[in-house]
Write a structure and sequence with these properties.
Keywords: Coiled coil. There is one protein chain. The chain folds into three domains: 174 residues, no CATH class; 65 residues, no CATH class; 57 residues, no CATH class. The chain has 14 helices and two strands. By secondary structure, it is mainly alpha-helical. Helix 1 runs parallel beside helix 8. Strands 1-2 form a two-stranded antiparallel sheet.
Length: 316
């Protein structure tokens, strides 16, 4: 019985690989239902583009509690639509973030979406997410079986659970489709040139086919490796920029709140702990308990709480 279910599951994913990207997005919307909220809050999005804030407030779109990812449908036109660095650098339209342009999928369906994007855009889009995130994640979760600690990861893993052999089959099939993409394109465009070349070399058709196949595979492998290295280099560069930005934020925090730093309060200290300090240094003789303080400060921003606490410590 389990073998039948396994075969049905694999057959399901292999059939998805036969669809067009548009067909698959429409199918997944029917399967999981449409998004009910935008990916980002529109007002926050434009404030971020205008340089007024450093982060964008997300909408209530997440369904990771169901083991589902949220995919931007227009990733076949633009790269990294949810990435704030790309949003700022390329001034992405908010239209890409609207709920109508989102689709839900499990991890394997997400991989297949990126496979189809890569094929249909001839590698211009989709491949970066495929090779640097989705394919490695599937390998780690289902083949290497690394332990997961985060609850959302566990739910996403279990929602699309595969055995090691099933995961390897899906990855091999997707890799093969992507790898053969450019080979087939070259065969079509250079058919006549190949005939002329074969006659000049006095090769039989089987000999020439084998010769051309080996050359084509070698070139394809080299090209994919170069593309991977370029994209990996770009990913590392973006990671370095992110780390540098966080370091600057920490430095700015220390400069702005020197007295808080003495209490080992950092940019990442939880709001609850900040309120605990505030209660101790100011409100313990005014309010009955911390719960009253939480109610009193419920509408205060994090920055406002930090500034109040810094002022108190400065004047002590």
């Amino acid at each position: 019985m389990s073998q039948i279910k396994s075969n049905e599951k694999i057959e399901y994913y292999l059939n998805l690989l036969k669809m067009t990207y548009d067909q698959l997005t429409r199918y997944l919307i029917d399967k999981y239902g449409p998004a009910t909220d935008d990916y980002y809050r529109e007002s926050s999005y434009y404030r971020f583009l205008n340089g007024e804030i450093k982060n964008i407030t997300t909408g209530n779109y997440s369904r990771t509690n169901e083991g589902l990812y949220c995919h931007h449908i227009d990733e076949n036109k633009m790269m990294n639509i949810s990435n704030k660095e790309f949003i700022k650098n390329y001034n992405y339209s908010f239209d890409y973030q609207k709920k109508e342009r989102l689709v839900y999928c499990n991890l394997i369906e997400h991989l297949i979406l990126h496979t189809l994007i890569t094929i249909e855009t001839k590698g211009n889009y989709g491949y970066l997410g495929y090779i640097t995130y989705l394919s490695p994640t599937i390998h780690e979760w289902y083949i290497d079986r690394i332990p997961l600690k985060r609850d959302w990861m566990i739910k996403c893993r279990d929602a699309a659970f595969l055995t090691p052999s099933e995961a390897k089959l899906i990855l091999d099939r997707s890799d093969k489709i992507i790898s053969n993409m450019e080979y087939k394109k070259r065969l079509k465009e250079k058919g006549y040139k190949k005939l002329h070349h074969r006659l000049n070399q006095n090769l039989t058709i089987p000999q020439f086919k084998n010769h051309e196949k080996q050359i084509s595979i070698m070139k394809k492998d080299i090209k994919l490796k170069v593309k991977y290295l370029e994209e990996e280099s770009y990913r590392l560069k973006m990671k370095e920029r992110e780390i540098s930005q966080k370091m600057n934020e920490v430095k700015d925090f220390k400069s702005k709140y020197p007295n808080l730093v003495k209490l080992n309060i950092t940019k990442f200290t939880p709001r609850k702990k900040l309120l605990d300090h505030l209660f101790i240094y100011k409100y313990k003789n005014i309010l009955s308990n911390k719960k009253e303080l939480n109610s009193l400060k419920i509408n205060d921003t994090r920055d406002k709480i930090l500034e109040e606490l810094e002022t108190i410590l400065k004047n002590k």
